Amino acid sequence: MPRQEGRDRQPDGAPSAPGSAPEPATVVVDAAVTGRRGRLRTTLDLIRSNPTGRAALRIFIGVTGAIVVIIGLILVPLPGPGWLIVIGGLAIWAVEFHWARRLLAFTRKHVTSWTRWVTRQSLLVRGAIALACFVFVSAVVWLSVKLGLGIDLVATVLKYIATN
């Protein structure tokens, strides 16, 4: 068992006299281990310290991340935060898997650089990018509804407009 500071030494570093009361153990709190992240890191380290806990944690993180990624991929063609949910699942995997941490860093780097590039462009270019995104998402939604439900949204809308 590791020796704790102040247990068998006096404050000046000299050994304690036999039979004397030991000094109270000093606790050194690292600034990086405070707050929610610190508590989470401490809890995860405690779980990882046991081989069974380590295996259970890897399985739990793997399954949870896979469920979130699959839900996100299902939602990608629909309007909404599909890709954001996929990246959230990747972040869950990154807690335990090194390859996911690297992929998340790669994704974060490229999304950040893309965002910076778009914000430097003129209003006309940003409008063209927004229009292209709108056309792409509309085409994906139309195709998903047509193939998934058998409903042609364009034909339905055109028929509705023609009757009114």
Automatic annotation (TrEMBL):
The organism's place on the tree of life at top rank: Bacteria
Alphabetical UniProt keywords: Membrane, Transmembrane, Transmembrane helix
Regions of compositional bias (Basic and acidic residues) in chain numbering: 1-11
Entry-linked Pfam families: PGPGW (PF09656)
Region (Disordered): 1-24
Protein name per its UniProtKB record: TIGR02611 family protein
Membrane-spanning ranges: 55-76, 82-100, 123-145
Residue ranges, compositional bias (Low complexity): 13-24
